[in-house]
Amino acid sequence: MNASVEKEERQEGMETLSTGMENLDFAIEHEGIRTGSLVALLADPNSPGDIVAANMVANRPAYYYTLGRSEEHVERNIKNIPNVSLDTTHISTVDSDNPVETLRGVLENTELPRAATVIIDPVNVIESLDFDAFKQLVHELQAKIEKKDGVGILYGINPEAESENRWFTMAACDTVFEVIHEQRGESVEDYLTVQKLYPGQELVNNDTRKFQLDRSLDIDITTSRNISP
Q1: Is residue 14 part of a domain?
Q2: How confident is the model at residue 223, as a pLDDT?
Q3: Backbone φ and ψ of 83, nearest 5°
């Protein structure tokens, strides 16, 4: 596996995978997302959250399940990111009257390679449905990625009125990132905030949990301009 995207932390035996954004990796102790983690990536509708999600493919085997964006849209985002290959990314549209059960069936019948990334985009579609079914899907995804030392990403758009089960999405995920879009007069800026990290992981500078994002497609965390909330 590409050593530049898989970061093995030998201290305390913690193994991590890249977020796809090198400076963000460096801002987190053990440099990246702990393998087996379920990650909530939440974003304002006007923010480049979909590009951040595309970065998390991170040049390793990835299974991207889209419930809203077209496969062409997802592919366009991914192919514009340096060092990320479409050859190892499987993009599928989940188009069904019962997307939760469809996803459960797809995941059950997919043999994930080690250290794979699974992305569900947007989670809004399924978290607004039957709670018990949604909870079961999340638990099954969590078990599957933990067994394969992978990472699961639940990408959610922040709605005007928070969906009924968004609390469970945030509670079930051991890592939570949020992409925020701010407009002050003629100034428009985007930030990534670290809301929660896997137990045993912290930020290198725990006083800094809000990072300004570059607007380019190869989004990077500009550590020289970290902004504390």
Answers
A1: no
A2: 43
A3: 65, 15
Residue 9 domain flag: no
Q: Quote the CA–CA distance of 84 and 61 in Å, as a whole number.
A: 10
What is the CATH classification number for the domain harbouring 151? Answer: 3.40.50.300
Whether residue 224 lies inside any domain: the answer is no
**Domains identified in the chain, total number:** 1
Range of the domain at 88: 34-182
What would the pLDDT profile of 18-44 be if each residue is shown by its tens digit?
999 988 999 999 999 999 999 999 999
- List alpha helices for 47-92, DSSP H: 49-55, 71-79
- Please tell me the number of Cα atoms within 13 Å of 22 on its side-chain side: 8
Render 188-227 in DSSP notation, one character per residue.
EEEEEEEEE--TT--BSSTT--EEEBPSSSS--B-GGG--
Q: Which two tokens stand for residue 102?
A: 């469809």
The answer, yes or no, to whether residue 175 has pLDDT greater than 90, is: yes
pTM (predicted TM-score): 0.89
